[in-house]
Design a protein that fits this description.
single chain, alpha/beta, Rossmann fold, Structural Genomics Hypothetical 15.5 Kd Protein In mrcA-pckA Intergenic Region, Chain A, six-stranded mixed sheet, five-stranded mixed sheet, Tyr-tRNA-ligase_bac-type, aa-tRNA-synth_Ic, ATP-binding
Length: about 425
């Protein structure tokens, strides 16, 4: 795209690779240079923590604030009761109010690390759409809002179409979701003069609906902007690892494991990830991304340190790097490794090494653990592990043992 932005925010988004689509680049750019503007991203409270898949959009809100504008983190206390059907093959399990509130409390901890909340013009706001959705009168809502939606058009959106094309059921409850999300934008514009909704490119249809609804009902000009749906260079969805989701809450995933996730970035992704997930200057991102051979490892450590420092603080990043050096370079044990503590009752007369590998999270099943051993991918205290029938008893755990899967994944096992 050849558009040359005038505002710092759009310029930053373009240079660093955040932009997939915008409903009106020129209009949004003009609005952003005319004064402080308010923008939001919505987050449904479906888990107790946000994960790495959310980090791209959190960084976008952070840049919005750093360039002088006001971000809103909108918690979906209302919409979570319905469930977003976008690109899902089945209906989301419905959560109760207590679980939704607990999830929102867990997610708030993460936002506070990236955004500054308060009362100044560009201070972030934390809102909950239950505030206006919970009290809606169904008949009034149908008459005032529902009449602006064409079912023909809603059926044409990719998120709905893909579900119907596969002849998978789409409940009326879920079909309402896009109307509720559009209504959120209208309400945020009415209440807080919010002019921009941002989100991943899978939200494009929902965002466009909100832009249209706000124009039709109150004739206000608002905008939508999306980020690319991010996949790693080997085609996997960003944020999915062998061990499951990469959570952002420290009590669900240790800072060391978070650091390790970034340290294990594929060579081809380093430059792109530095631009998206750190605040290093662009030319430095380019320089580090161009490193090849063993030099690229230095760039990966910088990436891991920068991203971990933003979330968990510089001290946690430094500790994680020190632990990694101790483990990898000196073959040491390191205090911060994921640790499995077995009670004497659990251990009994002994436990097979295959069971211990599964329990430690280095393999998902006994079958996978046996394959790891058979293919010489497992090590015990840095020595090749070749006997899948090995039994570990209390004597073997007199001091902690270190298990390794491949070169980069390790765990400690100790007796509690």
């Amino acid at each position: 795209m050849t558009y040359h932005p005038k505002s710092d925010f759009i310029a930053t988004m373009m240079e660093r690779g955040f932009l997939a689509d915008c409903t009106d680049y020129q209009g949004l750019d003009d609005a952003l240079i005319s004064g402080v503007q308010t923008a939001y991203i919505g987050y449904d409270a479906t888990a107790q923590s946000l994960h790495v898949g959310h980090l791209l959009n959190i960084m976008m809100l952070r840049w919005l604030q750093k360039t002088g504008h006001r971000p809103i983190t909108l918690m979906g206390g209302g919409t979570t009761k319905v469930g977003d059907p976008s690109f899902r093959s089945d209906e989301r399990p419905l959560l109760g109010p207590e679980q939704i509130d607990a999830n929102i409390a867990g997610m708030k901890q993460v936002f506070a690390k990236y955004l500054s909340y308060g009362d100044a013009p560009s201070d972030a706001m934390m809102l909950n759409n239950a505030e206006w959705l919970d009290g809606l009168n169904y008949l009034e809502f149908l008459r005032d809002i529902g009449r602006h939606f064409s079912v023909n058009r809603m059926l044409s959106f990719e998120s709905v179409k893909s579900r119907l094309d596969r002849e998978q059921s789409l409940s009326f409850l879920e079909f309402n979701y896009m109307i509720l999300q559009a209504y959120d934008f209208l309400e945020l514009n009415r209440r807080y003069d919010c002019v921009l909704q941002m989100g991943g490119s899978d939200q494009w249809g929902n965002i466009v609906n909100g832009v249209d609804l706000t124009r039709r009902v109150i004739d206000h000009e608002v905008y939508g902007l999306t980020t690319p749906l991010l996949t790693t260079s080997d085609g996997r969805k960003m944020g999915k690892s062998q061990g499951g989701a990469i959570w952002l809450n420290g009590d669900m995933l240790s800072p060391y494991e978070f650091w390790q996730f970034w340290r294990n970035t594929t060579d081809a992704d380093v430059g792109r990830f530095l631009k998206l997930y750190t605040e290093l200057p662009l030319d430095e991102c380019e320089r580090l991304g161009a490193l090849a051979g063993s030099e690229v490892n230095a760039a990966k450590i910088i990436l891991a340190n920068e991203v971990t420092a933003l979330l968990h603080g510089p001290e946690a990043a430094a500790t994680a790097e020190a632990t990694a050096r101790e483990v990898f370079e000196k073959g040491g044990v390191g205090d911060d490794l994921p640790t499995l503590t077995l009670s004497p009752e659990e251990l009994g007369d002994g436990m097979s090494i295959v069971q211990i590998i599964v329990k430690s999270g280095l393999a998902k099943s006994g079958k996978e653990a046996k394959r790891l051993i058979a293919e010489h991918g497992a090590r015990l205290d840095d020595q090749p592990l070749t006997d899948a029938g090995l039994m570990i008893d209390a004597g073997a755990l007199a001091s902690p043992i270190k298990l390794s899967a491949g070169k980069k994944r390790h765990a400690l096992v100790q007796l509690g």
